[in-house]
Amino acid sequence: MDGAGPALIENFEADAAAPSPRLDFEALFGALPSPYMVLDRQLNYVAVNDAYVEATGRSREGLIGGAIFDLFPNDGESGALLRASFERVLKTGRPDSIAYIPYPIAAPTGALEMRYWSAVHTPLKDAQGKVAFIVQNTVDVTELRRLKDIAYGPAGQPRASAAQLLLRAQEVQAANASLIDETNQLRDLFMQAPGFMAVLTGRDLTFQFVNSAYLQLIGHRQVIGRTVLEALPEVRAQGFVELLSDVMSTRQPYVGRAMGVRLQRTPDGPPQERFVDFIYQPILDPAGEATGVFVEGYDVTDRVRAEAQQKLLVDELNHRVKNTLATVQAIAAHTLRGYPDPKGFREQFESRLMALSGTHDLLTATSWRSACLKDVLLAELKPHGEGRYELDGADVNLSPNEALTLGLVFHELATNAAKYGALSAPGGKVRVAWRVTRECGQPRLALTWTEAGGPPVDPPKRKGFGSRLIERTLRGDIQGGASLDFAPSGLTCRLEAPLRAAD
After folding, report:
1. Regarding predicted confidence, which is higher, 140 or 357?
2. 66, exposed or middle or buried, with CB in 10 Å at 0-12, 13-18, 19+?
3. Dihedral (C-alpha) 26, 30, 35, 40: value to the nearest 10 degrees?
4. What SS3 state is found at 408?
5. Burial, 44: exposed, middle or buried (Cβ in 10 Å; 0-12, 13-18, 19+)?
6. Are 132 and 126 spatial neighbours (Cβ–Cβ below 8 Å)?
7. Is the separation of the CB atoms in 352 and 411 below 8 Å?
């Protein structure tokens, strides 16, 4: 013995140093003593072992590529039981067993022979965690069934343990079918719930279940069996994993309200911001220890964005109302200085308010986004009749503030023309031309108002109220400017202003 020891050790070390033989899984599959076969998602055969070929009495060539229910048709209860088991594996990604199922197989003579089986269906998943194939391992329990038939006497009392075992298998199978129906109902309710739900297990927070709403939230990624960080790597720096860990440690729920989360909802797309109401509820075992977290909540992105838009609109409305009141106050003050008598004040004040109202109508038609310069001019010139004016210029969009300011300016010019200028005489005419220039990248409006055909103009000895209103309104409201030329042939007004909406 002592002399043999070193030799044995030497031989062992030599064998250990030699490369290990490669395991031939195909040969292993074929040599398994129990029947095995592999189906794809369409329930077509892709592989069978020798034991399966022998059990079914079919050739391998006659099986591969064929559909199982075409090759072994069964429209009865057994066929429905087998199909339901396959569907559960495809739907849940979990193994499924049938303790006892009668299923006829063609005998060598060609006649159908009733056989009894016990089957286990195991999913094979792809890299994304989706079931790609189903492996079936069957055990033929026909002999047990025959023993049961032999074991029962006329009194119906079992006299053999094998028969008792078979009866027990049938009872378990019936109980399992009832439990499966209840489980499927609960699972359907879980999957169809309007709020998103997920069950995370273990300290590493592995996805155990997710429903359809959760899959929709995360872009229908395959997450079952993966940890949160593996399945949703973009949330690593957003604090949610820490919240989940705290729930596990403290065994206390966490409630989030309208919390923002950035999720990559398409494979190659950028993360999208969503807002969620949710609760992280710890899952406790009988000893009170946290074994996982139940996640439940709602995607409230539309509500959050609607509330933000509503607040923006309220703030904008508040701003515009204040501006309008300030404009009305300025109009009243200027009109009062120019017309101290009540009648004159009322007429001018009302006409200016109507001009302001007309511009408001134009802005309301575009939800207060902008107004067209030509429309603002037409609101003041159209009442004086077609053919009394000429407009020359491209379409220019004005911001609300620009539209209101220029509307008042054009109202003053049109009112002056109707009282003293071109529009006060039958043959008089107003021509308005404009263009947009750029100064240091900033668009600017250059507009010229020219009157012709009216009575001779008598230049004023001092700057009148209308002139002061035009200059102050342009300068104070939109940082613009104006110059008035009272030539004998007619008034010419040149104004310029920066444009915010022309981009």
Report:
1. 140
2. middle
3. 40
4. helix
5. middle
6. yes
7. yes
Q: What is the dihedral of CA 365, 368, 371, 377, to 10 degrees?
A: 80
- Residue 373: phi, psi to the nearest 5? -55, -40
Q: Residue 9's pLDDT is what?
A: 40
Beta bridge partners of 451: 430
Tokens read off for 323: 């501006």
Per 3-state DSSP, the chain is made up of helix, strand and coil in percentages (nearest 5) of: 45, 25, 25
Interval 330-346 mean pLDDT: 62
Radius of gyration of the chain (CA): 44
The mean pLDDT value for 160-180 works out to 60
Q: What is the pLDDT of residues 238-295, one digit of tens each?
A: 999 999 999 999 999 999 999 999 998 888 788 899 999 999 999 998 888 999 999 9
Is pLDDT of 112 > 50?
yes
CB atoms within 10 A of CB 371: 28
Torsion sign over Cα 130, 132, 135, 136: positive
Question: 390 phi and psi, to 5 degrees?
Answer: -140, 130
Helix, strand, or coil here: 96?
A: strand
Closest CA to 444 of 403, 499, 372, 370: 499
Say which range, 44-48, 83-87, 205-209, 328-332, has the weakest mean pLDDT. Answer: 328-332
Residues whose CB falls within 8 Å of the CB of residue 282, separated by 6 or more in sequence, listed in order: 247, 248, 250, 251, 252, 253, 290, 292, 293, 294
Q: What average pLDDT does the structure give for the chain?
A: 79
- Average the pLDDT over 423-432 and give the result: 89
Cβ contacts of 327-333, under 8 Å, gap ≥ 24: 327/356, 327/404, 327/408, 328/353, 328/356, 330/473, 331/356, 331/408
Nearest-angstrom CA–CA distance, 292 and 205:
7
Q: What is the DSSP string of 275-287?
A: EEEEEEEEEE-TT
Closest by CA to 220, choosing from 266, 165, 280, 172, is: 266
Q: What are the pLDDT digits (tens) for 463-475?
A: 655 677 777 777 7
Query: In whole angstroms, how far apart are CA 226 and each of 167, 193, 216, 223, 246?
Result: 40, 22, 17, 5, 20
Place of tokens 């409230």: 300
Q: What is the pLDDT of residue 307?
A: 85
Tokens linked to 215 = 């899959």
